[in-house]
Amino acid sequence: xxxxxxxxxxxxxxxxxxxxxxxxxxxxxxxxxxxxxxxxxxxxxxxxxxxxxxxxxxxxxxxxxxxxxxxxxxxxxxxxxxxxxxxxxxxxxxxxxxxxxxxxxxxxxxxxxxxxxxxxxxxxxxxxxxxxxxxxxxxxxxxxxxxxxxxxxxxxxxxxxxxxxxxxxxxxxxxxxxxxxxxxxxxxxxxxxxxxxxxxxxxxxxxxxxxxxxxxxxxxxxxxxxxxxxxxxxxxxxxxxxxxxxxxxxxxxxxxxxxxxxxxxxxxxxxxxxxxxxxxxxxxxxxxxxxxxxxxxxxxxxxxxxxxxxxxxxxxxxxxxxxxxxxxxxxxxxxxxxxxxxxxxxxxxxxxxxxxxxxxxxxxxxxxxxxxxxxxxxxxxxxxxxxxxxxxxxxxxxxxxxxxxxxxxxxxxxxxxxxxxxxxxxxxxxxxxxxxxxxxxxxxxxxxxxxxxxxxxxxxxxxxxxxxxxxxxxxxxxxxxxxxxxxxxxxxxxxxxxxxxxxxxxxxxxxxxxxxxxxxxxxxxxxxxxxxxxxxxxxxxxxxxxxxxxxxxxxxxxxxxxxxxxxxxxxxxxxxxxxxxxxxxxxxxxxxxxxxxxxxxxxxxxxxxxxxxxxxxxxxxxxxxxxxxxxxxxxxxxxxxxxxxxxxxxxxx
Length: 653
Ligand code: FES
Hints:
- The chain is of the alpha/beta class and 653 residues long.
- FE2/S2 (inorganic) cluster is lined by residues 24, 36-38, 40-47, 90-92.
């Protein structure tokens, strides 16, 4: 045929089209990802493209400068009113005249890709559940007595091929004035779930709505609540903010909150109310900070552990506190945000909560699996999300196993004599000279007095208040490497170790990291009790991993991923010297950062990812550590540093 050849970049899709075919039409026919909100009416400017002129021998075409039609009146008007970037055309207005190569810039792609910053970068492909559609509705007519809503539905079917919509009363009430104000041209925000069903009419605006739509990815932790306000067109995080979970006043950790409910009838209602109020405050602050109207926030995705999940939903978490740890529901949930009494977003905003895996393995763990994709790799990955409870995945493309292990709060610096949260003044990293047994360390917020490598001698240190989770892990591992404690975890005396930093404390010994007591400051030591607390935590973590390895029938893994805010700060060497994780080459230990938060962002930006994680969760094999007799045996063997029986060849290398 002699019809002109059209080649789109970067997709490389190509086809021949009759002279006069609009570029947008050609793109649609070829399945090229070219955006449009106004349906080709030349008003939204989402369809911008850049024609390339010149010779393209690779494609076998020569492109003449008149390969596309001249600017038409619509384009002229758009350009004079808003200005088109140089070289850009409106894809819905420019028509094909001769062979042409057309580039679709990233901002004109619906499914544009957002690259994550974290190490194991999975790109997020934009495909949000809620999108904008510009639509022209027929005016009502005395002779055709249909409702405005039904005529909107008909217009959406004709102009966007959307078969069916449903609306809340509140949105329905807004429809008539908006239609008239917009002179029967309006923009609607429609939410399409990944499950079968009608599109949900979230909101309506007269004319073309140009202020975008936003969503929230919320990581609801037992200690902090973190929210990311995200532009649903670009995936850009406009602002992130976190606040303390107000439920802390009912109990530091999850189990103490469950016991609060057991002991105080109605305690669950109090906690539900507290967390919902905090969420509303957090969302309001994010909107104010970014200048995004609350009404434009149309979606929220939550990830959380099972207890937080139930307390958010207003479900008594009592059953999660006792065997067999039954969840009220493990499926994902979709419902309007107003059901959670959230007011700082659109009245029809939709909430999605990722599925839970089991009574101890929650939606936060599902989000880690969504972000790290253990089931999509050939090699065997061990993924450890360290917190008060560790969630552990072991898997490859054949099978994915999961368990949770009760590590307790020691890794977060709790139950440690000089322990504190990771905050300014906390020792976060430590090195002990194996010869002199003198420590040097790095303190959060005190970079000023440190050496070039970021570590400072104990004598130079000021403003130290305690030691945080990553600091205590490094301290125990460094003490072992410096010979200050034996493989069983026993701290030696000054005589045995040759350092006066080992001081007696009762019948055991402590290692003095920092002593400012002469000036009324703190005395920071690692006590025998601290070592025992860390040993218990790391044994639980290791035993959980080993149990999964037994179940998988393997005696080693290929790689280890440390997830969680805390995982990001653990040094691979120290984690392995301590025996927190099984032996692997050190360069195969990576940190995934806040993988649960990333999973929430993925589910927010890409509606298909919701179906993906639901399918993944159905196939994850849950291993129950509490009832598995081998767990105890693994736990006892893992008490030694690094381990009583398992070899660690990569440590001697
Ligand atoms: Fe809206 Fe072209 S599709 S301007």
